[in-house]
Please model this.
Amino acid sequence: MTTDRQYTWLITGCSRGIGLDLTKRLLESSENFIIAAVRNPEKATALQALTLSGKGTLIVIKLDVDNADAIIRSVEEVKAILGDRGLDYLINNAAVNQEIDKPFTMKIDGWTNVFRTNVVAPALMAQVYLPLVERSTKKTIVNVSSSLASFGVAHDERWASYSVTKAALDMLTHKQHKERPDLMIICLNPGWVKTDMGTQDAFLTLDESVPGIVQTLTSLRPEDNGRLVDYRHEILPW
Ligand SMILES: NC(=O)c1ccc[n+]([C@@H]2O[C@H](COP(=O)([O-])OP(=O)(O)OC[C@H]3O[C@@H](n4cnc5c(N)ncnc54)[C@H](OP(=O)(O)O)[C@@H]3O)[C@@H](O)[C@H]2O)c1
Model:
């Protein structure tokens, strides 16, 4: 059921991990109308099961963010779903990584694909969804980044190719904020979370990260704008 008070969300990469759990948590509130994008809706059984539960509204759409034409085409589908409403939150969550690689041995060919998913796709998403974001109340774009992107957070030489893409995503966010300071545009660090990408070695469970993400995203402050913000609502250094 939809009401006038609902905030609208478009989240990429909702088949599993943080995207799936974020969708589940947002659905706990009737205030949220969520468009969850996945590249294989027929295989996203855990996500599809959520359509039967929760107080909010969930619509699942197909979107492979590696396909630029599909991103562009998706706007018409999302417009039709939203009607005369704008898009309050665009969450660029989908991402990939190579194995835990190091700079002098990482696979250079495969890196191009990682860069396309982690940087080029969020850039295009923001461009084509800008009119819908502008039409909304919250006007928020969230690029899901990582503390691995930060020069100010200590880390070692591993995850090299992935870390570089997330640092590029942070700079994209900075540039987007400089061009459109009237919008709310942030990078989000979810913490190191136990997912397929984060592995079971991660410090945090989804239960420890995602409620904080929801709390943070729904209470963003002017000082967060253009910054790297984490799941505890702390601003991290670049
Ligand atoms: N987990 C962590 O510790 C951690 C830490 C810092 C940042 N992050 C960031 O948090 C976000 C979510 O990570 P996660 O841990 O949930 O990862 P994950 O468990 O590996 O899930 C990745 C999600 O992205 C989707 N995806 C990948 N490529 C896609 C594409 N081309 N089109 C559409 N969807 C695509 C996957 O869909 P399929 O099922 O179709 O593959 C999946 O739903 C990412 O941006 C990641 O970089 C994670």
Notes: The chain has a mean pLDDT of 96. Residues 7-236 form a domain with the Rossmann fold fold (CATH 3.40.50.720).
